[in-house]
Structure formats: C-alpha cells, structure tokens
# Entry
Amino acid sequence: DAGVIQSPRHEVTEMGQEVTLRCKPISGHNSLFWYRQTMMRGLELLIYFNNNVPIDDSGMPEDRFSAKMPNASFSTLKIQPSEPRDSAVYFCASNGLRDSSYNEQFFGPGTRLTVL
Amino acid sequence: SQQGEEDPQALSIQEGENATMNCSYKTSINNLQWYRQNSGRGLVHLILIRSNEREKHSGRLRVTLDTSKKSSSLLITASRAADTASYFCATIGNQFYFGTGTSLTVIP
# Structure
C-alpha cells in the first residue's frame, strides 16, 4: 500500500486566495483525520470523519475552513479566503478496523502551506 | 491547554545512553500512543498502551502508564543517532490530543 497520500506537498499562495488540500487515506481505513502543525500551537486536530461522516469538527478554527469526504477514498480541506496565519503544515491521517477511532493513526507526508 | 504535555521539551544525549520522555494528561483515556516525527515528515506510530495496562515493551522502547497520576513515560534504551526526532504522546479518549512533543537529539 502506498500509505496516506496528500497533495500538494507544498503550496504557496497569496492572502485571500482559496486553498484546497487533498488526502487519499489507506484503502480499507474508515476513519480520516485532518491536523495542523505549527511551532506555536503544536499539532492540532481540526476534524475527523468516520465512515465519511464528520464526527468532530470542533477543532476547525473558523468558518473559513471546511472539510469534505465525498467517498471513502478521498477528502479535501478547503480554506477560503486564506490568511497568512493559516501558514502551517497540514497532515491527514487514517485508521481502520473495529473501534477504529482508538487505533494507531497512519499519517501522510503533509502539505506545507505558506500564505503570503 | 493541551491535553498531553511532554517534558522535557528538548533532550540531548550521547549515543548509547537511555532517553526518557514523560507525558502528562488531564482527562480519562482509552489508550495512550507514542509517535515519532522526523524533521519534515509525518508522524509514525511507535507504540500503544491501553488504559488497563501499566507497561509495554517493543524492541528498545518501553512505555509505562500510570492512570492514577495521568502520566506516561517513553524510554528508549541504547539510543542511536537515528533516534534523533521529535516524540509525541497522543491521548485517545472522547477526543484526540497530541502533546507538545519532546525534541530528542542523539549525538554520535
């Protein structure tokens, strides 16, 4: 298996632009997590899905952030409009099996976002 | 504040020495996990310890869990330069929290 796939790996954009980050979880996994990592705030859980349904989005910082999981093999995290303080590394992770929420998570390589 | 907080924030040791990192948390958990992150990479799962376990081993890793003190420790024995990375604890309960991480440097 190729593991969790994220794209793009790097994104540089200007303030006000829309940014879309993409994630393909490991095949067969039914939980998907979006995290943001910064030096100041560490690793923060933004949202997680179970069987394509958002379970907890309390970590989504503002309405500018939205996430979707239209099917079991694809998820997006969108920021519209983007701001410089959104600059961070965004990770996607997935896990599976029964009681999947409690098992180890497999992380993608991350997307490094820079908003100028 | 963060649910899981590690200490120390940074640790520098000589190759061959043991490294111990601690994690404290605040609420009840189902399990606690430790992850490793190399610079510029995603996190990699190391070990999971369930709330009813007190100690677990995996290779050179030893993890303890004290639910009465809401704390865990990760011991890496006979450290190697390749162990240089950041280490995070993650508490899994009603919510998911990653700690602030310990940056470990192993000097060859």
About this structure: The mean pLDDT of chain A is 92.
